[in-house]
Design brief:
Shape: globular
Oligomer: single chain
Number of helices: 10
Strand order of the largest sheet: 1-2
Number of domains: 2
Radius of gyration: 20 Å
Structural class: mainly alpha
Distance between the termini: 65 Å
Number of strands: 4
Helix content: 55-70%
Largest sheet: 2 strands, antiparallel
């Protein structure tokens, strides 16, 4: 049986292949100086990006594809294959959502400007391989990873933001939620109001799941995922807009 190289080694190989040369971008897409060779599987992209964005999921990647923000190559069997350039586009989209709360339409405009060369964004090639990272984190390790005090983890559990997955601890993707809880509490929020936000978030998640249910029942899992992601992203954007609008009045 032929062993496959790790995601990091494939990314490193692709970067080395193009080092010192001006690569030909795939259909002129940004980032132009990164390899556009489709060497990476979905699992590889998750491994490379989840260190910075632990909540990234395969369905989120499919949603970004359906919105035309990231366009991986499809194999003959229908599997998505990503390039190092695609991975950087994924990071760009997620940073725009996390750090600037920009809607997808605005992010798409920014990507189009980057593709055309009328907008510029610095890119630093990365080589990551976190195969040895533990699957679960203790409460103390979770707090350390999120850059918060252990009391924040306790508050998040009490408010229902997260729950312990196994006796070994919490899923690694809880880091993003804990960091957000820490920022909220530091800004003056408390556990009582945090519970209200969590209840509202759960209601929106249930609505998104219900909206996707008919497609899932017909066996259209990919369409259901896209529908669920679309409604969730719209709810997030609407919530951010309402909060900002109320604060600025």
């Amino acid at each position: 049986m032929v062993s496959l190289p790790s995601a990091a080694s494939r990314l490193e190989r692709a970067a080395a292949h193009h080092a010192g040369a001006e690569p030909t971008p795939t259909e002129g897409t940004w980032p132009h100086r990164l390899s556009h060779d489709p060497l990476l599987r979905v699992s590889d992209v998750l491994r490379l990006v989840q260190t910075e964005f632990p909540a990234l999921t395969p369905s989120k990647l499919r949603f970004l594809d359906s919105q035309g923000l990231v366009s991986p190559v499809r194999t003959a069997s229908g599997y998505r294959q990503y390039s190092p350039a695609d991975v950087e586009r994924v990071r760009f989209v997620l940073r725009q959502q996390r750090d600037h709360y920009r809607p997808l339409a605005v992010i798409a405009e920014h990507l189009a400007a980057l593709d055309a060369g009328t907008m510029h964004e610095a890119v630093a090639p990365r080589v990551l391989d976190d195969d040895d990272a533990p699957a679960y984190l203790s409460a103390e390790a979770l707090a350390t990873s999120a850059g918060v005090e252990p009391e924040v983890v306790s508050a998040a559990v009490e408010a229902g933001v997260i729950s312990q997955t196994t006796p070994a601890g919490f899923d690694r993707d809880a880091v993003t939620a804990i960091a957000a809880v820490g920022a909220y509490l530091s800004a003056g929020g408390d556990v009582r109001t945090l519970r209200g936000l969590v209840r509202a978030a759960h209601r929106e998640a249930e609505l998104a799941e219900s909206a996707a249910a008919p497609r899932r029942a017909r066996g259209d899992g990919e369409g259901a995922d896209a529908r669920e992601e679309a409604l969730s992203e719209a709810a997030i954007g609407l919530f951010a807009a309402c909060v900002r609008g109320s604060v600025r009045r």
